[in-house]
Amino acid sequence: MPDPITVTVNGRSVAVSEGATVAAAMMISGSHCRQSVLGEPRSPLCGMGICFECRAVIDGISHRRSCQILCASGMEIRTDEW
Amino acid sequence: MSGEQKQFDVLVVGAGPAGIAAAVTAAECGARVGVVDDNPAPGGQIWRGESANGLGEAARWLVKLHHQNIQLLSGTRVFDHPAANVLHAETADRFLELSYQKLVLATGARERFLPFPGWTLPNVMGAGGLQALVKSGLPIEGKRVVVAGTGPLLLAVASYLRKHGARIAMICEQASLRSLGRFGLALLSQPQKITQVLALRKDLAGVPFVTDSWPIAAGGDPVLKDVLITRGRDTEKIPCDYLACGFHLVPNTELAALIGCRMRDGYVEVDHLERTSVPDVFCAGEPTGIGGIEMSLIEGQIAGATAAGRPDLAQKHGRARAKLEPFSRALDRTFRLRPELQSLPLPETIVCRCEDVTYSRLKPYGSWRSAKLQTRCGMGPCQGRICGPAAQFLFHWSPDSVRPPIFPAVLNNLAAMACREAQPSGAMRGSE
Prior knowledge:
The complex is a heterodimer. Chain A contains 1 helix and 7 strands. Chain A is mainly beta. Chain B folds into 3 domains: 2-110 and 250-332, FAD/NAD(P)-binding domain, CATH 3.50.50.60; 113-247, FAD/NAD(P)-binding domain, CATH 3.50.50; 340-395, no CATH class. Helix content of chain B is 33%, strand content 24%. Chain B has 14 helices and 21 strands. In chain B, strands 1, 2, 3, 4, 5, 6 and 19 form a 7-stranded mixed β-sheet that branches. Chain B has a 5-stranded parallel β-sheet with strand order 8-15-9-10-11, with helices on one face. A 3-stranded antiparallel β-sheet of chain B has the order 12-13-14, with no helix packed on it. By secondary structure, chain B is of the alpha/beta class. The chains are: A mainly beta, B alpha/beta. At the A-B interface, helix 1, strand 4 and strand 6 of A face strand 8 and helix 3 of B.
């Protein structure tokens, strides 16, 4: 097994395997990805970059589709927290 | 944001099986080939997470993609077709202008989602969606999963998840036992498919597989806890960690539509050489009809050879393609949605997830266009890719025309696009 990669989701450390996407890291951390227009929690739906439900702030850039982006060591991920 | 210009003899959009087959074939014919793909690595959805170091069919094709004539542009999304033989694309930090002599569209398919109460809860996902997440590092071991919806993908997903330690509580297929029986008969002419089905049956031994069954509500707050399913006259509440639910596939035809390719029954119309109605533009794989991986590989090879100026090579695949066509037609027939599914949403059920537009707000409108204008349905970042096919099924609305950008793009890149429109002579903005 390759060494796990550590990222932070809303400031908390999460270890994921190499090749894992940011969406997987967020789901492992138990964080929802975004708050909908009516304030509902949303998490990944399509897993392939189509639905935009998994978008999050990654290293300061907002609205990134987390299911299409691989985790890199030290990456900072922020979701709409509640 | 920096910009770059690239030129290819053959440009392929999509690096799933059809796109890979097209690119490899064209490159082997001597063409300079570009492959542009939205995903972080090639393989499409079916080969997501596969590497060129493996032993199977995926690895054999992925190895061939490392060809000196092929330039692979992963993590790159096409958002416009500003002029003939040009596409605009962007990566996380770059704008790209891609010019080509020939274009092969291999944009694949997505899952069809239908709204039902609770379908927006976290951990209610597509069937392929959950599989993609597991392939992308989500641990599934010991998790209880209900797999539901329709299509052959349900069995493939259930088998994959089980192999990775999930407990599959139930597989609910909306199609009737009778139509599945007819599908089985259609398979008899496809030895390769029979082997696959038998393998899946073995993988799924002991898992309840129910036909004429579908989810009517997902429960839990704030996260999924259980799903209520209907089976015949009974309903049953099944506790689960994930509901993996998809209603077969919808082709990704947005780019083909933007380019002006003629459509037929929702698919891109092609001839026996995968030529679309637009000169120099070819289409292969699911956008020409949902036919599965074998069909995609064959169509990709035909498109790649023709695009590289070798229709003689393309023609030798004609027989293999003809043999697979009955399977493609049987898929459409067998997994057609039953009308009962139209009454799944309650008035307060959200149909458009981007803009949180409910069923009752959409119902009064007579067309997709007026619903969009009045409610913002389909006008969020997914641009109606999720709610559009659902609305088409629920309200019989035809899809609207496609306009650029076909994906949300960074403002600087849209500005580049506007510049081009202001200079029809085609002066290139180069690297700004």
